[in-house]
Amino acid sequence: MGKTSKDKRDIYYRLAKEEGWRARSAFKLLQINEEHNIFNGVLRAVDLCAAPGSWSQVLTKKLRQNAENDDDVKIVAVDLQAMAALPGVKQIQGDITKISTANEIIKEFEGLKADLVVCDGAPDVTGLHDIDEYVQSQLLLAALNITTHVLKTGGVFVAKIFRGKDVTLVYSQLKLFFEFVTVSKPRSSRNSSIEAFVICQNYNPPPGYVPTMINPLLDHKYCDFNQLTGPNRFIVPFIACGDLSAYDSDTSYPLLLEGQTSYEYKEPVQGPIDPPYKDILEKTKSMQINNS
Amino acid sequence: MSTLIRTDVTSVKLYKDIILAGIGSFLCTFNIKNSKPIQKIQALDGQKIHGIIPSNCLTKLLIFGGKQFVIFNEIESIFKPRGDAVVYDDWIHTAVWLSENEIALLSAHNVVTTWDITTTKLLQQHINKDNSILYSGLLQPLQHDILVFSGTVYSQVILQWFGDEQPLHYLKGHKGVIFSIRCNLQKGIIVTTSDDRSVKIWSVTSACSDYNIKTYWKNAHIDCVHDLYGHLARVMRNTLTNLYIISVGEDSAICFWDYNGNLLKKTISHQNSCIWSLDADETNLVTGGGDCGIMMHPLSSVTHNSHDEVIDISVTPKKILFTARNNIVITRVDNILNYYNSNFSKIQEIKLNHTSTYQLVGLSSCKQLIAVVDMDGHLDIIIENCKGDPGLTKIIETQLHLGKILSMQWAGNRHLVFCSEGGVITVGASKRNTIEIIARYLLPPCKERWLTASALNDTRDALVVGDRCGHVHLYESRRQQPAYTMKRVHGRYGPTSIDIRNDIVRTTGRDGTVRYLKIIESGLKYMSCKDLEFEWVEKFLDSQGKYLCGFRERSLVVYDVENDLKVVDVSCGGGHRAWDAERYIENNHGCYDEWLRIMFVKNTQVYVHTFRLRDIVSTVILPGTHSKEINCLRTYRCRDDDPVTWFITGGEDTTLRVSTSEQEAEFRDRAVFRHLSNVRAVRLLSVAKDETLVVSAGGRAQICIRSITFTDRKVTAEELVDYQIKGTDKERRGNQNWRNCSVDFDPETRIMDVVVDELNEDRVVIYTACSDGEVRVFEWNRRGGRFTMTQEVRHHRTCILKMKMFTCCNKKIISTCGTRGDVAFWEVSSDGTLAEEPALVLRTNDSGINSVDVKVTGDCQFLLATGGDDNAVHMNLVRVAGEGRWVVVTSHVYRDAHCSQVTGLALLDGLCVTTGVDQRLTSVSWRVEGEEIKTEFIDQKYSDVSDIHGMDVVRDTGDRLTVCVYGKGIQVFELLRPPCVA
Fold first, then answer.
1. Which one, A123, B294, B527, B974, has least CB within 10 Å?
2. Do the Cβ atoms of B905 and B949 come closer than 8 Å?
């Protein structure tokens, strides 16, 4: 496969490299904001499952427009893995299921709570949709759980969601904590991808709700108002986001885009992080494992 | 009601003489002896079965998956549920029977619960401290307690005594998610597999001797003693037998290890899809794969392989052959022919009187006649007797005057085909004790001018031969020159074998293929090709065409092409030596056994390997199909009342398959064709009662057309068009090396959907929706074979996803749907071209449209229904007025059908059936009342097929509708149509 094949196949991959984003997902957050104005007045934001850091990059760039002084903007990025440093972003290497992590975030905000929590985390998919969707929903609920500790009332929560067979269970759970829940798909997210984003606005926990890490939220069961199959299912409104004139992630574009006169290949901004199989590759370098 | 289900086999279990399998939410059972299906019953509700655990007394099954579990009773091999499935609030990873009435579950948040199954009451719950997500687990019952192994997302295995606050041990060492944990208490061994592609064997040593008590585990040292790598991708599952550790992975590999960590055997199964499940007893291993198939592998194949013998014959052997009676003929450099019986003892020696050392040896197709000829034309024909003590008799010894003989083959049992200098082909037939020349032909000039294979068609008196340039020639009516030549059928070495059955010529070659040609009035017609996994294909070993042998690098291999299985792989040094292979059936006291025997010459000795197939061959319990998602599917029936349904499917695995099912278990692929990249769209155009044109298209801008003929349960295919919009790699590059090629700025488009229309008997028009936003129109002449692009039109600025053609107002109309939720309608002119501009453009959906259907409701009025990423079904009533004045009369949205992308949609009289990624099949009634569209929910079903890509209506009998959904698998539903809608 040629060096330019990926540039040809995926317009946003190419644009991310050209605009200096660490991953193409940066465009997703930008397009979500275009539609939902989630950055309006936000000074304190939390980026959960932040690595490699493209959403933190977007937050830094966008939130600084909300403040006269760059120092008034506080962004905390949380991930299990270490990630390359970003100016203006406080990194916490920690587990989002731990109370200590929540406390660290609050401390960073000097006792104040966050205006916005975003989470673009996804598991390594196994290929079995039901397990992948379940693990993704658990990741989202873990993100929601820590959000209940750190988000101010009226705040916004944005997270990646897999719209699979049991997504209505997640919707109904989110609806308990937020007044408005919509699901959105940025133009930069492929049509063929199962991912979408939930935009949860106006955080308003049920009366008497006490955030806890001991008994994490487990998702709901099907019931009368949210059936496994039937006319009553909890389906939230869908809003596509991103300008209609924006590039489309499913379209094949020529390397010379409209209005351009030259094309230059660019290396990725951030190379891949250590994959789990790195060790094996090292150890088996001198051996041959054949599939014959 | 679901009538057919094929999807990932997520669970298998050996139970008495039954194989239990979890296919989606269904429990399917098979007889272990004859592989016949016994039962199919729904066990869970909206969850896949991930585990089947028989009770200790083998009377009950615990079946779990997702957040559910259910208990089944067994009575005489038939399973019945004891009650409804129980819904728990966490994902169940593993389960165990504690007694006949008590079970324990381990769930994803590291919670262990125990249940009384007679009352389905929760007895105990213990939440372990480390409650981040688990990917696997094991509950090991001890005498009175349970040992809990939890495989975490953080690469650790946590070992805990059930009920304890603190874990006993953390097993650290893996670098990725833990996918499976198994334990053998007697051996003191724990085996784990992981995302990091390794299998680890941990040894447990303790000062205490009784593993049933806590002290043993408290004082135990658990160390990783073997770190094993044999897999090329994630290792999903493992199981332990007394002798072996067996691991399966994403790379389709099954690895058999001994307890010292030696890799004993590795086999590839399930067509390169992930293997999801396995179970083994001491004699068999069962695996379930992502290709929807189930296989059984005899464990005897791990070590015991073959009976090996060496025939030592002091003098260098030249050619070796198996005869009709499974005896062996060996010709030697010293002009002697030896005859050995099947026990390898020499019984005869025949002296040959050849003058030249260049000797050609041939065996007739009945394997009874042996011909030996030297370069000077001295010919011996020797026959093996068929009864009594084995013996050879020389029946012909003669001198041919053909000049220097360069090649000789038998064509059937009577004819010998010689090729001598100058390309002279001579066909001779035996007549009493001499040879009668019956025909002479001339081989066109080529570099090495002789034949590599030949065959006769008696009924047509036609001879088909292959030469060293890979050409295949057909000679007819005794005319010297070929009646027809098909060039470069098999690369530069020429066909290795040719045989003819009826009118079909089957050739094998050293280009890794079997090719099928048909003898027609005007010569030969190319039909189709079968790709093999090995380069050097030699010959079929049986008349049914099941076993095919050849060479892969230095090994002699035998493949079962019916089931796509490698049967034998023996390192022999390569294909350039003398060798032979045979398959035979032996009656051993009324028990018929199939055997394979191969032999080859190495270091001047003859090595013979004999295999009893049942010791080494895996059995197909349930045939597999696509190894990845099915992107497109069309069903076909030769007649409306035909019980046989054909499924033509294209997948992400780059194959196009034709499958059929009369009964559920008979669903199997009848033909498999390959594309260069994924197959995204397929359309049929019926041209005769039992013949249809199949147009398939997809990645790499490739379009293929095949004619498929259905007879009984057989498929005959003819490849007609294989076209790439930008040309093939070779056409694009010319003779340039790829390194010297300049960067091509144009992307190669993907073809997302295709529509086919017939202008007349000859002219076929193909419309393609492309990922660069263009609609490209092609015309193909069925008689002349020309395939040309006639038009490129662009309206959508982004990728076009779907296309639909219909007739309304006496106009042919094509609608195209894009990723922006826009639909364009194009009028089609009588010559098949599209109007320059769309007649109407609508923006129906918020986002990409993944399904579309149209129902014409009046003279000049139609209903358009679209479904897509915005998880709603949009309906628009459109009136086609004259002069291109089209108007949308009214619009309607139905939002409750799905909660994710709507990928399949069928608009029928008064009924709209939809499906989507949320795995639901929804029926909604619709009607037009005045200026309004009204819809009403009728019914919804859950499908076990994940990642649903679409739906096709199989049949509609008015009161009953059969639909097929496809994605990661395939499922057929029968829907009853409510009377009010019929």
1. B974
2. no
* Amino acid symbol at B872: A
Which residues, in sequence order, are bridge partners of residue B116?
A: B102, B121
- Tell me the three state secondary structure of residue A130: helix
Q: What does the alpha-carbon distance between residue B801 and residue A249 come to, in Å, rounded to a whole number? A: 12
Which of A95, A128, A168, A243 is the best mutation test for B, with the most CBs of B within 10 A? A128
CB-CB contact of B560 with B583 (8 Å): no
What residues of A form the annotated binding site for S-adenosyl-L-methionine?
A: 53, 55, 79, 95, 120
The answer to whether B894 and B935 are in contact (CB under 8 A) is yes
Distance CA B885, CA B882 (A): 6
CA dihedral (B877, B882, B886, B890) positive or negative: negative
Q: Please choose, from the candidates B873, B865, B871, B751, the residue with its C-alpha nearest in 3D space to the C-alpha of residue B800.
A: B751
Write the single-letter amino acid at B196: D
**Nearest Cα to Cα of residue B377 among B416, B331, B337, B321:** B416
Q: Encoding tokens for residue B723?
A: 């076209």
Non-local CB neighbours of B294 within 8 Å, separated by 6+ positions: B9, B12, B19, B21, B30, B286, B287, B288, B620, B621, B622
- State pLDDT tens for residues B681-736: 999 999 988 899 999 999 999 999 999 999 877 888 999 999 998 877 767 666 66
Contact between B299 and B614 under an 8 Å Cβ cutoff? The reply is no
At residue B261, φ and ψ (nearest 5 deg) are 85, 15
Residues β-bridged to residue B125: B113
pLDDT digits (tens, 9 = 90+) for B184-210: 999 999 999 999 999 999 999 999 999
Residue of A nearest to B9 (CA): A128
Distances (CA, A) of B63 to B75, B97, B103, B113, B175: 16, 11, 11, 16, 31
Separation CA B587–CA B585 (nearest Å): 7
pLDDT of residue B982: 47
* Residue-wise burial string across B631-646, b where 16 or more C-beta atoms lie within 10 A, e elsewhere: bbbbbbebeeeeeebb
CA atoms within 13 A on the CB side of B594: 12
What CA–CA distance (Å, rounded) separates B454 from B473? 9
Q: What is the largest CA-CA distance in chain A?
A: 65
Eight-class DSSP state of B271: G
Instruction: Enter the tokens of residue B970.
Output: 């395939």
B591-602 and B605-612 strand pairing = antiparallel
Let me know: does B234 contact B194? Beta carbons within 8 Å: yes
Asked if B132's CB is within 8 angstroms of A218's CB, the reply is: no
Nearest-Cα distance to chain A for B709, in Å, is 34
> Token pair 């350039």 is at which residue?
B576
Q: Give A90: exposed, middle or buried? Use CB within 10 Å, 0-12, 13-18, 19+.
A: middle
Whether B538 and B497 have beta carbons less than 8 Å apart is answered as yes
The encoded tokens of residue B719 equal 């490849």
Q: Which residue has the tokens 């209903």?
A: B863
Quick one: which of B903, B860, B897 has its CA closest to B881? B860
* Cα dihedral value A270, A273, A275, A276, nearest 10: -170
Nearest to A238 by CA among B843, B896, B935: B896
Chain A residue with Cα closest to B92: A131
Residue B278 token pair: 């396995």
pTM for the full model? 0.92
Could you give the residue numbers annotated as active site of A? 160
